[in-house]
Write a structure and sequence with these properties.
2 domains; 240 residues; globular; nine-stranded antiparallel β-sheet; alpha+beta; 23% strand
Amino acid sequence: MNLLWSAATRHHDWLAEDRAVARRLVAQVKAAGLIGEASWYSIGDADRRAPKPGMDVLRYLLDQPIKRRFPLVLGAGGDSPFAWELAMLLSPPDDDGEVRGHNRLNLWTPIEPFAGRSGSDRLVALFRGIHGPAETEFAYLHPHPRSSQLEDVIDGAYGAPLTYGTMFTGVFWATLLGKDHLALFDLARLQGLDAYRVEWTGDEALLLQVSEDVADATTAAVESRMLRLTEVFRAARLPP
C-alpha cells in the first residue's frame, strides 16, 4: 500500500517570483527525505524520459516555460530513499492575478516508513511543517489507492464533494484546511471535532488527524470516524 500526500490551492500563485512557492515545496519535500534523485521525468503528456548524467531533474522541470498560459504538468520519480513519484500542476494567474484553475502537488511513497505512532507523528509533523495557509488551501494524507476509491464519483463515499471536486471531497486520515477553505464553513459548528488530533490556528488553518497510526487508516473503525467527520463538515457548509 502506498501513501498519497496531496496539496492544492486556487488562490495562491505558486509561479510568482520565479516560482518561489513551487521551488520551496519541492526543496522541503526533498530535504525531509521523502524524495531523492530522480530516475525519470515527464512534461505534459509526454512519455517518461531518463535524465542525462548529472542532470538536476527537479530544477529542470521547475524551469520549464509557460506556453500560452496553459498549466505546467510535471512528473518525476525514483527509487531512493524508497520508491517515490511526484506530480505537480502549476497554473498561471489570469490578468486579475487569480490562479486559472488550481495548483497541486501530489506525492506517492510507501506507507511502511510511517507506520506506527512515532512514524505517523513524524509524517504529520513534516506535512504540517511544509504546508500552511500561506500557500495551501487544502491538503491531505491517506493510503492510496483507497483515497481514490473514496472519491469515485459513482461508488465512492466522497462522490459528492464538500467544496470542490478537485479538493475537499471528505475527511481523510490527515486533512489540512487553509483560510480560504475554512471561510466556506460555519466554524462554530466545527468545534469539538472527534479526532485524534485537532489543531486550530485561529481561523487561518485547521489540521485534523483521525487516528494515531496511518497504517490503520483503511480499517472499518477509522473509516467510520472519517465518514462521521465528513458529515459534520457537510452540515457546517455555508450556503454558496
